[in-house]
């Protein structure tokens, strides 16, 4: 099947947003806190309405090493449980399916499927606290019912086994975010023709591209090819703190133009050892990419350290209070915590539905795309 034509893509662009009211448009935002109140009190008031959508949580792998746990009662062996999620006003978390080093080959596919199964088991075992979701609307419904929404992903690109059929199967099982790095078709040299076809199929399905840790060439080509917003689930400012996963101002500017999302991690090696350091990165990303393109990524239970006073998922109000002290407006805080992730999910879902009317499931293989001159 031929690639989508420019006029078809323009149609999707024109339709994007229809039927999707934006509570953050100028003049439509309704304040929920008292500007004269203590910043911590204001933070709790804002987060009660606009909770944190946490872009990366390693709980699925952490739980594999526990013989017994109760996340609803509380679990001291991990940094994430239902009481602390509620205390930190976390309304949604991305359940990472990334795997430790040393698992490779066909085992990556199998272990990723085991991770998906484990998350489903955990969610069913904690129905009063957790709810699996696939869309922005489902996440909002879960929050309104007092549950924490769990979105599956990011997973590693190697989990596809170079098969678009496996991509579709993982999507059917709930996967919604895939990291484009560490494979031959998304490497230091950028996306190959097969990599571009994977990305197109992700757009058609509604699977978001995560570019944290991807090469600059992969990032630039993905931004050019993708018809849905992209994510950096664990990236901060390389200008403030050099790190392989942090973004230069050039890439942040490109991300802002593409209306993607940089989710700043709470890790000392990427952002620094204090709450103020994290806030510095959030300030910088907001300034360069724009307030619509910055989010939060706790990276809890991912085997990393955390800045002082941000040791677990209950600590988000301390960070939000710091931002309010710095003069962040309430609408910008609401975008940071909840609104930007909702926009990206809504746009990816709408784009997928539009593309499914124009594009059949791809039958491309890596041998066809990268071994010969034709993609299909």
TrEMBL record:
Classification via InterPro entries: Metal_Hydrolase, Pept_M19
SUPFAM superfamilies for this protein: Metallo-dependent hydrolases
PANTHER family: DIPEPTIDASE (PTHR10443:SF12), MICROSOMAL DIPEPTIDASE (PTHR10443)
Protein name per its UniProtKB record: Dipeptidase
The organism of origin for this protein: Streptomyces longisporus
Upper lineage: Bacteria, Bacillati, Actinomycetota, Actinomycetes, Kitasatosporales
């Amino acid at each position: 099947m031929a690639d989508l034509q420019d006029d078809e893509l323009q149609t999707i662009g024109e339709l994007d947003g229809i039927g999707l009211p934006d509570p953050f448009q100028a003049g439509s935002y309704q304040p929920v806190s008292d500007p004269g109140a203590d910043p911590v009190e204001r933070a709790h008031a804002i987060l009660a309405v606009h909770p944190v959508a946490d872009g990366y949580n390693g709980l699925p792998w952490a739980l594999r090493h526990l013989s017994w746990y109760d996340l609803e009662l509380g679990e001291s062996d991990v940094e994430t449980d239902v009481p602390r999620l509620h205390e930190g006003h976390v309304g949604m978390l991305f359940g990472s399916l990334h795997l430790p080093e040393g698992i490779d080959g066909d085992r990556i596919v199998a272990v990723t499927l085991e991770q998906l199964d484990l998350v489903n088991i955990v969610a069913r075992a904690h129905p009063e606290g957790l709810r699996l979701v696939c869309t922005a609307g489902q996440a909002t419904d879960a929050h309104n019912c007092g549950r924490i929404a769990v979105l599956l992903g990011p997973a590693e690109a190697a989990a596809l086994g170079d098969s678009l059929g496996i991509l579709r199967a993982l999507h059917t099982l709930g996967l919604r975010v895939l990291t484009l790095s560490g494979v031959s078709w998304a490497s230091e040299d950028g996306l190959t023709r097969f990599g571009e076809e994977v990305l197109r199929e992700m757009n058609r399905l509604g699977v978001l591209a995560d570019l944290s840790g991807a090469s600059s060439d992969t990032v630039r080509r993905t931004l050019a090819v993708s018809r849905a917003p992209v994510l950096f689930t664990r990236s901060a400012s390389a200008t403030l703190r050099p790190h392989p996963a942090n973004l230069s101002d050039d890439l942040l500017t490109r991300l802002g133009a593409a209306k993607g999302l940089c989710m700043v991690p709470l890790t000392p090696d990427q952002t620094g050892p204090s709450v103020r350091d994290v806030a510095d990165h959030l300030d910088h990303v907001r300034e360069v990419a724009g307030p619509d393109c910055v989010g939060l990524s706790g990276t809890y239970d991912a085997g990393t350290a955390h800045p002082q006073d941000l040791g677990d998922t209950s600590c988000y109000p301390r960070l939000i209070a710091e931002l309010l002290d710095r003069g962040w407006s309430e609408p910008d805080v609401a975008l940071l915590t909840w609104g930007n992730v909702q926009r990206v999910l809504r746009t990816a879902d709408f784009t997928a539905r539009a593309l499914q009317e124009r594009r059949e499931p791809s039958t491309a293989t890596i041998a066809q795309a990268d071994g010969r001159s034709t993609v299909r």
